[in-house]
Specification:
Low-confidence stretches: 5-9
Radius of gyration: 20 Å
Mean pLDDT: 90
CATH architecture of the largest domain: Sandwich
Length: 298
């Protein structure tokens, strides 16, 4: 059954209150903010608790507790919590610690100092978003806590220390492949939000091109051009990535009867097509994926 998502008007460009050059925000909520959005500030987020799908530009992968991300200024993104978090009876909840600063605002004066040349170069390379390597997560999380617990000038000093630490990390994982300045308008951002929300709510159904084009208020041909222009991928590939992410989550949780059942529950019409797409996206067959991560297969 196709689910019609609530198409209420939301902001795409979200203002962050910048009374200071650095803003620290800890969110302890039932689920993460549920709409694609952007802001002028660079964002460093430590997911203390929570799981779901991160969309950042044209990047889309699962996130989990412990992950640390750097999202570039004006980069469209959404931390989409798993469906279980939206259950009114759920006691899971999410917890995230985030540091915001505007590299073109108050923080710019700091970046123009000769001592912060390395930091400035690092921030310039964050437009596509970055994920902290697993080996560095604990160290960065500890420093984020230091930023949170510091006050006034000490908070600024701890933020500079955090960025200096990040600037020395070599094996960053880049998120989006589109790393140029995001020129998407607020209206286009809201349209993409509707497309993402509809897809993530209905990925297990047989979504027709006409249906998703209607969500975007475009003809099918115009929608195909529009989606590829803004994501550098086709809608079919995006939908497949959503389905494979869900399949991976199901397999790792152990909540499945067989690999074939995972395929059908994730929206694939056959196990053969599921195996082919799974290997194309992950580089492994479903069975190999299970062996590598859990040591067992069905």
């Amino acid at each position: 059954m196709i689910i019609l998502v609530n198409m209420k008007v939301v902001q795409f460009t979200i203002p962050v209150a910048m009374e200071n050059s650095v803003v620290v925000q800890e969110d302890k909520l039932p689920f993460f903010y549920n709409h694609l959005h952007r802001h002028n500030e660079t964002q460093i987020t430590w997911v203390i608790k929570g799981e779901g799908t991160l969309i950042a530009g044209n990047y889309m992968q699962r996130f989990q507790s412990g992950d640390v991300y750097v999202l570039g200024a004006n980069q469209p993104h959404i931390f989409k919590s798993d469906p279980v978090y939206f259950n009114s009876k759920s006691k899971n909840g999410v917890d995230a610690l985030t540091v915001f600063f505007n590299p073109n605002g108050l923080f710019q004066a700091i970046l123009n100092l000769p001592e912060t040349k390395t930091i400035k170069k690092f921030i310039a390379g964050t437009s596509g978003g970055l994920k902290v390597p697993a080996t560095e997560q604990k160290r960065m999380a500890q420093q984020l806590l230091a930023v949170k617990n510091a006050k006034q000038g000490f908070r600024l000093a701890e933020t500079i220390r955090l960025l200096q630490m990040m600037a020395t990390v070599k094996n960053w994982k880049t998120l989006a492949t589109i790393t140029t300045e995001y020129a998407i308008s607020d209206m286009e951002g809201l349209r993409m939000n509707d497309v993402y929300q509809f897809t993530m709510s209905n990925f297990a159904e047989n979504i027709k091109l006409q249906q998703i084009a209607n969500v975007a208020h475009l003809t099918p041909q115009a929608f195909c051009r529009y989606f590829k222009k803004h994501t550098r991928k086709t809608y079919v590939i995006f939908l497949s990535e959503i389905r494979i992410n869900e399949a991976c989550k199901r397999m790792l949780s152990g909540d499945f009867d067989s690999i074939s059942s995972v395929a059908y529950d994730s929206g694939f019409s056959s196990a053969v097509s599921f195996n082919r797409v799974f290997k194309k996206i992950t580089g492994k067959s479903p069975r190999q994926y299970l062996r590598d991560y859990t040591g067992k297969v069905d």
